[in-house]
Amino acid sequence: MSNPRPLEEEAYDMSGARLALTLCVTKAREGSEADLDALERMFQQLGFESTMKRDPTAQQFQEELEKFQQAMDAREDLVSCAFVVLMAHGVEGRLKGEDEQMVELESLFQVLNNKNCQALKARPKVYIVQACRGEQRDPGETVGSDDIMMIAKDSPETIPTYTDTLHIYSTVEGYIAYRHDKEGSCFIQTLVDVFTERRGPILELLTEVTRRMAEAELVQEGRTRKVNPEIQSTLRKRLYLQ
Questions:
Q1: Whole-angstrom Cα distance, residue 13 to residue 8?
Q2: What's the distance, CA 134 to chain centroid?
Q3: Where is the Caspase family p10 domain (predicted)?
Q4: Tell me: the pLDDT tens digits for 112-154?
Q5: Helix, strand, coil proportions of the chain in percent (round to 5)?
Q6: Which residue, among 59, 54, 115, has the nearest Cα to 87 in the 3D structure?
Q7: How far is CA 167 from CA 30, 83, 206, in A?
Q8: What is the per-residue pLDDT across 29-85, written as a single tens digit (0 to 9) for each?
Q9: Range of the domain at 207
């Protein structure tokens, strides 16, 4: 029986520009400024050119992302990676703008895909979504869940439209995302701590974020709640930020 072939250690080229766009509704979202401060610190430490816009309307979520894409495609230098942070009230698949109108997450995600953004074709696009995805609350369970293994296949010469993308949600589908009035959200604060303190491929860092959040005891309405992020990845290589 032959020995299994080890996984290739190929990593994304991070020698070019790193760009970040943060769109955050602060209205009726106490603690948002603490999250913005933490993100600014993280992007500065990780060498990102960071742009932040407060209180976008639903239409401005779309417009600002399209401007971000157009500016990237107009650059003459190499763009290695882009982060997009979206923070607002929300329901599954949609975010609420400052004007109380809703924008579809899928329409935002499409702006930077391999078809629509040439600068990021085959390069990593990371979306961080701090928003509720429903009204359910998780009191927690006393047993652990099984590990899930994901097996990657060799990629062909052409790449699919939706590869090289990482979606990081603050909570799982259908559930509330928690935010402290002064200290910000458990999700953003934990993510910033791990991304600035630890080294390693981003999916390993996100496993640590999930572990820390799973251990945290959040109190809401006098009751203990549990919350964990959800990570959806179509990355083809290892992504290192440090």
A1: 15
A2: 18
A3: 155-242
A4: 999 999 999 999 999 999 999 888 887 877 654 443 334 445 5
A5: 25, 25, 45
A6: 54
A7: 24, 10, 11
A8: 999 999 999 999 999 999 999 999 999 999 999 999 999 999 999 999 999 999 999
A9: 17-138+161-233
Q: What's the token pair of residue 161?
A: 């439209």
Q: Is-contact 206 200, C-beta < 8 A?
A: no
pTM of the model: 0.82
CB 84 within 8 A of CB 21: yes
Cβ atoms of 122 and 163 within 8 Å: the answer is yes
Half-sphere exposure of 48 (CA within 13 A, CB side): 25
Q: Bridge-partner residues for 81, per DSSP?
A: 18
**Three-class SS of residue 138?**
strand
Reading the block at residue 182, the tokens are 């002064």
11 lies in a domain? no
Residue 9 is assigned to a structural domain of this protein: no
Catalytic residues: 89, 132
Question: 209: closest CA among 180, 235, 229?
Answer: 229
